[in-house]
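Example 3.2
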Amino acid sequence: MRHSTIDFEALRYLLAVADGGRFVRAAEFLEINAGSLGKRIQRIEEELGFTVFERNHDSIRPTSAGAEIIIHVKRILAEFDDLLMAARRAGLGQVGRIRLAVRLPAVGEPLQGILRVWRERYPGVHLTIHELNERDIVKGMEDRQLDAALMTKHTLWPHAVAEPIYRERLLVAFPKDHPLARRKRLTWAALREQTLLVQGWEDSHTAREYYAGFLGSGARFGSHAASKQSVLGLVGAGFGVTLVTEAQAQVRVPGVVFRPIDEDNAELEVELVWVPENKDPVVGRFVSFMQEVSASRRLL
């Protein structure tokens, strides 16, 4: 099969001549010599095997066969321009997808507001949330099934690449008729005699270990391989108490009340984790965005 000399430059020449109606006008638009343009069009016609343009002393116009060709030329050039635009947007991280894992539900502020701004700035990026435990997040990041993760500092694994994004105060969730629910503020000492319900899986008890540092070695824990909403359901049923973030406390749970903890260290630090080897531009854009928002809103 003979190699064709008709390339994108040739297609642009054909369209310029069709739109300009004269070689001189088309050559001025293309910023080339009119004689050179005429010779290139002639070579294109020779390769196609028919006359694309009828010439006279005043103007040129497509033949019936040429008009059919120009329809396809316009479509091809439009699609190619779309391709270039899409490539530029992809290179800037303006299109694509982000698979974001979270350890805490994406409810309340500041995370809900952060994600709202992301959606408004980058509507071309499809963001999906994956609420998982630490074990599944680590595996998902290693297998490249996840692009980034928001995790509390005490759940990070060794050598994880992470940066702090925001902090949240901790509150206590009580059954509404619990004696301590009458207090306006609590201390760690007041909670040491309570059964603290936490999320935990067979090979991951980071929440229990973290809170034991606040409550002491004699603290009683009840671990459940369940969502935070399910744990709060158990609180409402009287199985114990649990700790929640300010954002989680914004969600109403039947039979449960929330009280603040009057301790300086009653907070969680949430960090963004990503894999630097992931060179997808949209991942880099998301990391930069999270860093920017954290700094501009002074979330730390």
